[in-house]
Amino acid sequence: xxxxxxxxxxxxxxxxxxxxxxxxxxxxxxxxxxxxxxxxxxxxxxxxxxxxxxxxxxxxxxxxxxxxxxxxxxxxxxxxxxxxxxxxxxxxxxxxxxxxxxxxxxxxxxxxxxxxxxxxxxxxxxxxxxxxxxxxxxxxxxxxxxxxxxxxxxxxxxxxxxxxxxxxxxxxxxxxxxxxxxxxxxxxxxxxxxxxxxxxxxxxxxxxxxxxxxxxxxxxxxxxxxxxxxxxxxxxxxxxxxxxxxxxxxxxxxxxxxxxxxxxxxxxxxxxxxxxxxxxxxxxxxxxxxxxxxxxxxxxxxxxxxxxxxxxxxxxxxxxxxxxxxxxxxxxxxxxxxxxxxxxxxxxxxxxxxxxxxxxxxxxxxxxxxxxxxxxxxxxxxxxxxxxxxxxxxxxxxxxxxxxxxxxxxxxxxxx
Length: 416
Ligand SMILES: Cc1cc2nc3c(=O)[nH]c(=O)nc-3n(C[C@H](O)[C@H](O)[C@H](O)COP(=O)(O)OP(=O)(O)OC[C@H]3O[C@@H](n4cnc5c(N)ncnc54)[C@H](O)[C@@H]3O)c2cc1C
Prior knowledge:
Distance between the termini: 11 Å
CATH class of the largest domain: Alpha Beta
Bound molecules: flavin-adenine dinucleotide
Oligomer: single chain
């Protein structure tokens, strides 16, 4: 039986493996650490902006389903079905392992790929740190984009090791670079979230976060703080308020800890009402762009790595995305196309009318359309208890684009 080998067990690799396993191929998932899930142990937040709904219509979405199965009982979707969720990051390992076992994926932990065996531009095998060769017909590089330690020093200008799990298991290895295709160079970066001890917020704010908002909310940034000159402490002060959509709100997500996109020295965070005594669970690293979106492998819109025959980029290896959802949808396409490649089938490219296809082409800078797909834009913005809430709810339009493109159940249709 043909074999697909996925390297890296983060959200991208897990999604790739689960989708590849729907086809008549053997799927092996290699992970250097002793748990699956990669950086998703720091996530806990999944936005309702459409790719998840597309993936499910396409017969995929299994790894999104793993996250959904861990949704916390506090209601965070503000009554919009299938909207944003917060999920319990502490349970991800068991849930991922169960999903892999049910799908028949062979998981190898403590299996760090360090090299490749090539014939011309075809990868024949990856070589593990202990010398074992894992052969395959097609491969997915889903090793993420954090590390090596050299990269942390270069782009992060500080230590993010406790988040990025580098020292225990050895550095990340770019498998596609080993296969002779250099990564796309990155820019200076930072770890894009601060994880703040929930207990260190003021009792009033904590109550708001826990009870009123349901664990997922936005607070207005005090205007006077927004104007504070941080130049002395911060190399790029314009990046200090890393709220996702604009600079007027702080996003707080309650997933056992309080997660924010406030990336700035603690002494400034202390000026925000409710954050006076806040302290962080993770160290802070920053100069500009997210460090977790560096050094993707160059690829085409099928995610086939340029210049190579049979290795695909999945997850953050596929581009400068910043969250788990693009990691999963690129993982799914990479896994599916790796199965297609193994079985001698034509590769799938998602059309620009889909959210996923649009983002892959956009990030890839191959065909950047001027207009965003209309269903990508949040269509609900409302105030609730002082919090601004945004949601994508027009699932009918999302559905139409998948139906019109003939992609319904495409990941499930047997290729052989
Ligand atoms: C602090 C923080 C908070 C975040 N919060 C959110 C959030 O709330 N919601 C959200 O959607 N996203 C969030 N993200 C982003 C999200 O975590 C990433 O987008 C996602 O994890 C990327 O998935 P990936 O599979 O591409 O890479 P990773 O998660 O980095 O996984 C890569 C995997 O490959 C393994 N690996 C590396 N090298 C090798 C090798 N040589 N051999 C074998 N295995 C290897 C690694 O050990 C790792 O398990 C956050 C990120 C950070 C850092």
